[in-house]
Design goal:
heterodimer; A: about 160 residues; alpha+beta; Ubiquitin-like (UB roll); DNA polymerase, domain 1; 2 domains; 5 helices; 5 strands; about 35% helix; B: about 280 residues; Uridine Diphospho-n-acetylenolpyruvylglucosamine Reductase, domain 2; Uridine Diphospho-n-acetylenolpyruvylglucosamine Reductase, domain 3; Enolase-like, domain 1; 5-stranded antiparallel sheet; 4-stranded antiparallel sheet; 11 helices; about 25% strand
Chain lengths: ~160, ~280
């Protein structure tokens, strides 16, 4: 039996009828065509499917769409604004925080959860915050640098 | 991977959830954060006919101090919420373990009640609950009962919980000033599950003897267990190193591609010694 799900995705109210077994990541990718959220391991280990649900990072391959009913979801497509890239996106670009880019949307959404908790994270805190996101190219060094740079931008913005 | 089809109901109250579980007659399963259950359903190792979503029952959330000094953690409290709760910070073993359970995304969704009900043989929280001698409070349409943690875990993914019962809270003893505690684990890096995880509480020292010792181990046996041979060795005056050698006494040590039996047993003894040393250091 189909369940009706109402949620706000990247600021836009959406109404979708789904099978109860539909995963949040399928709803995003297949029903809403938001394919920036990636599926890799599909076993809640790699973090490529990370989005924020009411501001907190979750692995959308391990959340049922029906569990997100009424929630506010942000995906990588919701990070940039009309004014330009989100500070995290800009910092990943500037600092070469990616090679193939497959893990990047999940990395950025995990980093968004971190920056919501603290805008002055230590490198240890950054590494701890992305422990649930696997990158098979970079060795993480530039990802950490990028998140640190984004935090600096966010702090400067808050101060300005 | 897509779970087998199921019917979904969102519980509107605890009583509603209990009635739904009772009506399901064993084929209904409660889902909270889903961080243990959904992966099993995707692999089709679990195929409930009905999922009862208890995720919005606010009455099962939060940490509070009880009149008798104990601390109650609502079953729906997430790891992330526990990490932020100051009442729990004074439990050294929780402060050690919580930041390393799963990852941020899992801690944002996963609940202590769900993890306890899941009874994963390598999950961290069961060892901590065992070491603390916690009480599992469960409810069904038949009423409420408090299950001592000592008899709760009965096998891999098997516990004393009946199919129509829901874990409503975990009760921890109030912290004692004369005890120190710690948690130490070696994890399998990809999954984060412990190859051997050890929760230790020690203290009440009088003269050259420890008057209290509690050690629980996860990831090693068929289910998390109290290492009673270690405890009695410590109470009998053995050194941490000598006592730790008894970590796996009477236990069939698990063996898999990440850690064979010999290696896992060795890791367990090392982690027992480290956890005891760290717990004792907290007393100073």
């Amino acid at each position: 039996m189909a369940e009706h799900v109402s949620l706000v995705v990247n600021g836009v109210p959406r109404e979708v009828d789904v099978e109860p077994r539909r995963l949040l990541v399928q709803l995003l990718r297949e029903d809403l065509d938001l394919t920036g959220t990636h599926i890799a391991c599909d076993t809640s280990q790699c973090g490529a499917c990370t989005v924020t649900l009411d501001g907190k990072s979750v692995k959308s391959c391990t959340v049922l769409a029906v569990q997100a009913d009424g929630a506010n979801v942000t995906t990588i497509e919701g990070m940039a604004t009309a004014d330009g890239l989100h500070p995290l996106q800009a910092a990943f670009w500037e600092n070469h925080g990616l090679q193939c880019g497959f893990c990047t949307p999940g990395m950025i959404m995990s980093a968004a959860d971190l920056l919501a908790r603290t805008t002055d994270p230590t490198d240890d805190e950054i590494r701890h915050a992305i422990a649930g996101n696997f990158c098979r190219c970079t060795g993480y060094q530039n990802i950490v640098t990028a998140i640190r740079a984004a935090a600096t931008t966010v702090r400067a913005g808050a101060a300005g | 991977m897509i779970p087998a089809a199921f019917d979904y109901v969102r519980a509107t109250s605890l009583d509603d959830a209990l009635a739904r579980l009772a009506a399901g007659g064993g084929s209904a399963k409660a889902i909270a954060g889903g961080q243990s259950l959904l992966p099993l359903m995707k692999l089709r190792l679990a195929r409930p006919e009905t999922l009862v979503d208890i995720g919005r029952l606010a009455e099962l959330k939060g940490v509070r101090r009880l009149g008798d000094g104990r601390v109650s953690i609502g079953g729906l409290t997430t790891y992330d919420e526990m990490l932020r709760d100051m009442t729990l910070h004074r439990y050294g073993l929780l402060a050690d373990a919580l930041p390393n359970i799963g990852d941020v995304q899992v801690r944002n969704r996963g609940t202590i009640g769900g993890a306890t009900a899941h009874a994963d043989p390598a999950s961290d929280m069961p060892a901590i609950l065992l070491a603390l001698d916690a009480e599992v409070v469960v409810r069904s349409v038949r009423g409420e009962r408090a299950i001592p943690i000592a008899g709760f875990f009965q096998g891999a993914f098997a516990s004393a919980l009946e199919p129509d019962e829901l874990i409503t809270e975990l009760r921890l003893p109030g912290g004692r000033e004369d005890l120190g505690s710690a948690y130490r684990a070696i994890e399998q890096p990809a999954s984060g599950y412990s190859i051997a995880g050890v929760a230790a509480i020690i203290g009440a020292r009088s003269g050259d003897r420890w008057g209290f010792c509690s050690v629980a181990i996860t990831g090693v046996g068929e289910h998390p267990y109290r290492a009673t041979a270690v405890e009695s060795a410590i109470l009998g005056g053995a050194s941490f190193e000598a006592a730790a050698a008894h970590a796996c006494d009477g236990v069939t040590v698990a063996s898999d591609i990440h850690a064979d039996r010999e290696y896992r047993a060795h890791v367990a003894t090392v982690q027992v010694r480290r956890a005891l040393e760290a717990a004792a250091a907290r007393l100073a």
